[in-house]
Design goal:
β4 and β5 form a beta hairpin. The strands form two sheets. Strands 1-2-3 form a three-stranded antiparallel beta sheet. A three-stranded antiparallel beta sheet has the order 4-5-6. It is 50% helix and 6% strand. The relative contact order is 0.12. Among the domains are: 194 residues, Citrate Synthase, domain 1, CATH 1.10.580.10; 107 residues, Cytochrome p450-Terp, domain 2, CATH 1.10.230. By secondary structure, it is mainly alpha-helical. The structure holds s-citryldethia Coenzyme A (SDX). S-citryldethia Coenzyme A binds next to α17.
Length: 432
């Protein structure tokens, strides 16, 4: 028998069940609240609202803990490739040798786009935003791919097709934007190496990534693989709850991820650092602007709705950036500037009191810059990394026998008691 929360309302007492997760998170199940009391809850930004129960990822924001299917991110980082991490996130355990070989084969076999898909790239302008292209092309994929998923075998094949082809789409959109011929995937290359080949090879010269570059991009993608009910994953679940197919749901996830408050922050961080560097402004002066509410300036790559401590991913990415730059014998002044900015912020009461720390986006751009990924594709790289998490969340909705459509309520605050009137009588003053 679960514990009950007691609610006193209008002189009446009500009881609501308390739910406890496997990591001891506590929730009040309010699914009977409106039927019992006539009241709904209101929670701006869903800061206190659990939309679902999920078994994929656990975050403890106070302790800076992140686990995929119970495994700490620190144990996954550097040990599991992105593909292995994707399998873990989607199917719930690390892949066996057979799982790995089968899934890798599926990824390789489905890496090519249908020739007719290539025509879309001729229609996009060279400066078309890669996130718009990615979202559009994922839906275009669904016109070529079987979207009915009856069992885990279908799911694995669909997941492989989607994960494999988003990589090809991203590279093809880059090639189209720089006027280079689209490069076909190679069947003798692993996931990350094949992506880099399609991005940077040209007909007269193959691109061969160093082991350090491949490892850094595998790590980047694995660290982005899932993150509980963030904005874009919640969007995927919202769309999936109407029983829309996986491609449509993930295409919607791309759109939600695009915003600078979410996945678009990895671009905004670099733009912020470049603006500080080009202005010659002392870091302390920029931080002062951030603290001045009137400025409307945020410290991009800092803060998080859940983490009230370091985002464990930012620590791992910070070291990975150093290691990659050292292996390439390059120096990125923006990384030094980022560190200086972080040092100033982390010793300033404004940030300490609000528990604002570097998040996944603060250092990740340094790795992408070093690899040569163009800035406008940084959020596309986040999307490629997050695809397994979106697929896993789509699967949780799809596999749920109760499968209710997501349909939040609202508190109406608009006009009341209005009536229709003829056009000549319609006069409205400003505040209407
Ligand atoms: C991602 O949810 C996820 O898991 C997302 C993600 C994932 O893997 O999917 O982790 C990926 O999206 C990371 C976040 C990337 N976004 C940014 O870096 C943009 C900059 N950060 C902020 O916009 C903000 O911190 C958010 C959007 C991340 C979180 O916003 P919240 O939880 O709504 O926080 P808030 O706006 O209520 O801020 C609380 C206070 C406010 O000050 P006061 O009103 O109390 O005086 O902190 C301040 C805010 O003004 N604040 C910041 C700040 N973030 C919060 N002040 C300056 N710079 C910032 N970055």
């Amino acid at each position: 028998m679960s514990r009950m929360a007691k609610l006193e309302l209008d002189g009446k007492s009500y009881e609501l069940p308390i739910v406890e997760g496997t990591e001891k998170e506590l929730a009040i199940d309010i699914s009977s609240l409106r039927a019992q009391t006539g009241y709904i809850t209101l929670d701006d930004g869903y800061g206190n609202t659990g939309s679902c129960s999920s078994a994929i990822t656990f975050i403890d924001g106070d302790k800076g803990v992140l686990r995929y299917r119970g495994i700490p991110i620190e144990e996954i980082a550097g040990k599991s490739s992105f593909v292995e991490t994707a399998w873990l996130v989607i199917f719930g355990h690390l892949p066996t040798i057979e799982d790995r070989e089968r899934f890798s084969g599926l990824l390789t076999e489905s890496s090519r786009l249908d020739e007719s898909m290539r025509k879309h790239f001729e229609g996009f302008p060279p400066n078309g935003h890669p996130m718009a292209i990615l979202s559009a092309m994922i839906n275009a994929l669904s016109t070529h791919e079987p979207v009915v998923i009856d069992d885990d075998r279908d799911l694995e094949e669909a997941a492989a097709r989607l994960m494999s082809k988003v990589r090809t789409i991203a590279a093809a959109s880059y090639k189209a934007s720089v006027g280079e011929p689209i490069v076909y995937p190679r069947y003798d290359m692993k996931y990350v190496e094949n992506f880099l080949h399609m991005m940077f090879s040209v007909p007269y010269r193959d691109y061969e990534p160093t082991p350090e570059v491949s490892a850094a991009l595998n790590l980047f993608l694995a660290l982005h693989a899932d993150h509980e009910q963030n904005c874009s994953t919640s969007t995927v679940r919202m769309v999936a709850s109407s029983q829309a197919n996986m491609f449509a749901s993930c295409s919607a996830g791309v759109c939600a991820l695009w915003g600078p408050l979410h996945g678009g922050a990895n671009v905004a961080v670099i733009e912020m650092l470049e603006q500080i560097r080009e202005s010659g402004m002392p870091v302390s002066e920029y931080v002062a602007k951030v603290k001045d509410k009137q400025s409307g300036i945020k410290l991009m790559g800092f803060g998080h709705r859940v983490y009230r401590n370091f985002d464990p991913r930012s620590k791992i990415l910070r070291k990975a950036a150093d290691d990659l730059l050292a292996s390439m014998k390059i120096h990125d002044p923006l990384l030094d500037l980022a560190q200086e900015l972080a040092d100033v912020a982390l010793s300033d009461d404004y940030f300490v009191e609000r528990k604002l720390y570097p998040n996944v986006d603060f250092y990740s751009g340094t790795i992408l810059r070093a690899i040569g990924i163009p800035l406008n594709m940084f959020t596309v790289m986040f999307a490629i990394g997050r695809m397994p998490g979106w697929i896993a969340n789509w699967k949780e909705i799809h596999d749920d026998p109760k499968g209710r459509i997501y349909r939040p309520r609202q508190v109406y605050v608009g006009h009341t008691g209005e009536h229709w009137m003829p056009r000549e009588e319609r006069h409205y003053d400003e505040e209407d």
